[in-house]
């Protein structure tokens, strides 16, 4: 899943993931609010939720309406099964040391990557 308010970044990142051939389905959200609603709705599907939930969520930090950290706070309220399945990778242009440090407070944030997403980043994910 890609969550970024920049449509061009989403398109480029989607193409990089497709080229790496690491995913059958790529969900793209241009806002954190729609992404969290999507995850909440998938949870309601019970038996098939596990197959629909993304393995990796690439999350931008600086977005209008709901930023990446607000998303993480709401993500924390989702089911244990969702939090266990979905690994989060911060994919952002922020080089602010406070953002990097803050992201480490969330156990399901597995990596912090600066944009753009590259094949090398994808190959070394190990989440």
Automatic annotation (TrEMBL):
Any one GO biological process: phosphorelay signal transduction system
Sorted UniProt keywords: Phosphoprotein
Keyword Glycosyltransferase appears in the UniProt entry: no
TM region(s), chain numbering: none
Superkingdom classification of source: Bacteria
Positions bearing 4-aspartylphosphate: 60
SUPFAM superfamilies noted in UniProt: CheY-like
Gene3D superfamilies attached to this UniProt entry: 3.40.50.2300
Sequence ranges assigned to domain Response regulatory in this UniProt record: 1-127
InterPro entries registered for this protein in UniProt: CheY-like_superfamily (IPR011006), Sig_transdc_resp-reg_receiver (IPR001789), TCS_response_regulator (IPR052893)
Keyword Phosphoprotein among UniProt keywords: yes
Protein's recorded name: CheY-like chemotaxis protein
């Amino acid at each position: 899943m890609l969550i970024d308010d920049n449509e061009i970044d989403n398109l480029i990142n989607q193409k990089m993931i497709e080229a790496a051939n690491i995913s059958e389905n790529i969900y793209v959200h241009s806002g954190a609010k729609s992404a969290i609603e999507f995850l909440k709705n998938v949870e309601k599907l019970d038996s098939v939720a596990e197959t629909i939930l993304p393995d990796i969520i690439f999350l931008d930090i600086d977005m209008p309406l709901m930023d990446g950290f607000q998303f993480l706070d709401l993500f924390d309220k989702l089911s244990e099964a969702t939090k266990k399945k979905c690994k989060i990778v911060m994919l952002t242009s922020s080089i602010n040391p406070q953002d990097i440090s803050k992201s480490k407070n969330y156990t399901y944030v597995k990596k912090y990557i600066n944009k753009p997403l590259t094949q090398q980043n994808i190959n070394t994910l190990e989440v």
